Amino acid sequence: MLLLALLLVLSSGSCIEIELDIECSSCVLLNNICYNVTHLLDLNAPFRNRVVIHKMGILRSENTLFFSFEPAIEDEEYYKIGFVELDNPEISGIISGGPNFIINFGAFDIDQDNGLVYLGGVDGIFVLDTVAKKLTPYSSRGDQITCLYYKNNVYFVRYDDRGIILKRGDNFKTLFEYIPINNFIVTKHDIVVFLTKYGLYVGKGRFTHRVSKNSLFRGLTVDLDGVVYAWWIDGIYKVVIFEKNLEMSKVVKVSHLPSIGAMTFDNDNNVLFTIDRSLYRMTETKYNCTLY
Ligand SMILES: *[C@@H]1O[C@H](CO)[C@@H](O)[C@H](O)[C@H]1NC(C)=O
Ligand SMILES: *[C@@H]1O[C@H](CO)[C@@H](O)[C@H](O)[C@H]1NC(C)=O
After folding, report:
1. Residue 103 and residue 122 in contact, taking contact as beta carbons nearer than 8 Å
2. Which atom of ligand 1 is nearest to the CA of 24?
3. pLDDT score at 22
4. 247 φ, ψ to 5°?
5. How would you classify residue 235: left for phi > 0, otherwise alpha for psi between -120 and 50, otherwise beta?
6. Whether 111 contacts 97, CB under 8 Å
7. Among the atoms of ligand 2, which is closest to the Cα of residue 287?
């Protein structure tokens, strides 16, 4: 028997079987390369019984991980944002509204150059200056923000609205203004990868191309080289973008990883992902890794 079967018992009670090469019982394949999965830490936040983490991102200069999560059901807020210093995990905390001040921060993204974290919730966009440790209103007070991305400017989606709003100074421009958008990222070449109820698309200007009919991808992220990934309940997918020929773009599954919660990339461009409240890192290994 060359294979070991590892049973992961999920908090939901279901069992998922992963078969791993005996030479490395903690390894998984990603992009046909074998990676060792190691447990880094458990995220510390007032989670619900079933832990839901929607998004993770790292403030690179401080190596601080931010994550949006659904807090305990008795909490009046549906969403909050937590953080933990990866080099110093005892330093962690939660950003939230506080008594009589519900903000429901669920959307966020990071301006790495200026150490700013933009946070979106039920009352527009706020900005957290991580150096001055100051949270101030930034834009769109009164609007409910469901998704936010930072690339030179803030891009965001409003609840029950269409398109992606790009804020440039005091001007707002709407991209894909005819489509309700559930999630998105913007590549360094301004190609937008976005999720709607009809699936996953790539688009630029007025051109859009559907790369997958799966409308249930749980999240989108970009690695340090600009490669776009999506994840779903069964693993990690790469969005292969042909910039000159967008209609050739496609999605390929690159790793079978049941029950992945959220993912991002660390400062060495290793995948970080969660299962339940546990945070794992994938590091490349020379061991054999055979998945069936
Ligand atoms: C995987 O990581 C663990 C924890 O760091 C280590 O003990 C183990 O030797 C590693 N295995 C391989 C195959 O690299
Ligand atoms: C991995 O598999 C290849 C091909 O089967 C074999 O040549 C190599 O020795 C194996 N490596 C290890 C570390 O066992």
Report:
1. yes
2. 13
3. 54
4. -75, -5
5. left
6. no
7. 13
Contact 288 CB / ligand 2 (< 6 Å): yes
Query: What single letter denotes the amino acid at residue 19?
Result: E
Q: Which amino acid is at 44?
A: N
CB 215 within 8 Å of CB 198: yes
Flag whether the pTM goes above 0.85.
Answer: yes
Average pLDDT, the chain: 89
Cα–chain center distance at 251: 17
pLDDT-derived band at 26 (thresholds 50, 70, 90) equals: confident
Helix and strand numbers, DSSP H then E, in the chain: 0, 27
Which ligand has its closest atom nearest to the C-alpha of 289?
Answer: 2
**Largest distance between two CA atoms of the chain:** 65
- pLDDT tens figures, 167-185: 999 999 999 999 999 999 9
Q: Tell me how crowded residue 48 is: count the other CB atoms within 10 A of its CB.
A: 13
Encode pLDDT of 36-78 as tens digits.
Answer: 999 999 999 999 999 999 999 999 999 999 999 999 998 888 8
